[in-house]
Every structure is written in C-alpha cells, then in structure tokens.
User: Fold F-box domain-containing protein from Vigna angularis var. angularis.
Amino acid sequence: MHHRHQRPPEICNLARLNRAFRGAASSDSVWEAKLPRNYQDLLDLFPPERHRNLSKKDIFALLSRPLPFDDGHKEVWLDRVTGRVCMSISARAMAITGIDDRRYWNWIPTEESRLDLLVFKAVSRERRRIH
Assistant:
C-alpha cells in the first residue's frame, strides 16, 4: 500500500493497526507530500523554537491546529483530512471600500464567532466590496 495516496487520518489509522506500516507512516517523505508547498511560510508565523527539529509528521500536526496571527485577527491551519490551508478572518481584519458612512453598516457583538470578535452586518441594500 502506498502512503502517498492516502489521507493523513488513514495513514495514522494504518500505523496504529499494523506495526509494519508504523515506520513508513512516520517517514518524512510521506508527510512532506501531505504538506502544502508554502508550509515553510506558515511555519514562519511560529517562533523558530516551536518547529526546530520537528519531523514532517509533527509539522503537519502543529499546522493542523489554528494559529492566530495579525494581532489575533486571523487564524490559519491545515485541514487534517485534505492537507489544504484554511484561514479564518475576523470582520475587524476586513476593510469596507466605498462606505465610510456608519449609517450604512454597523458592528454587532456575537458569541458565535470563532475568533470571538465583533462581526460585520451590512444594512445597506447596495452591494459593496469587502476585502
């Protein structure tokens, strides 16, 4: 069985079930194939001592947990199944172009936000670009 074609949870499950797969499942070459091309850029968001001397499997595990950055307004992590980069951006990190007039929008507090910040609610019926 070729680990490069399996998803990370499948690799870990096989390693738990079969000793023969355990060594191969921890191989850097297997886990490097699961990391995105820009994983080093993501690691640069951490202090160097957090990721120095880690195996690729441990780097994948580290990056699979949400990492806050940009003063806590954004989080980035890897999806544990697909290995794709995910990002959560708080409403406070976005800019509203074309509307500086607060009569057309307001901030509404919420407990439902993953980042536990205020969210944006558009009151205007016009479409505005948010970036």
Notes: The radius of gyration is 20 Å. Residues 116-131 have pLDDT under 50 and may be disordered. Residues 98 and 128 are 7 Å apart (CA to CA). Residues 3-89 form one domain.
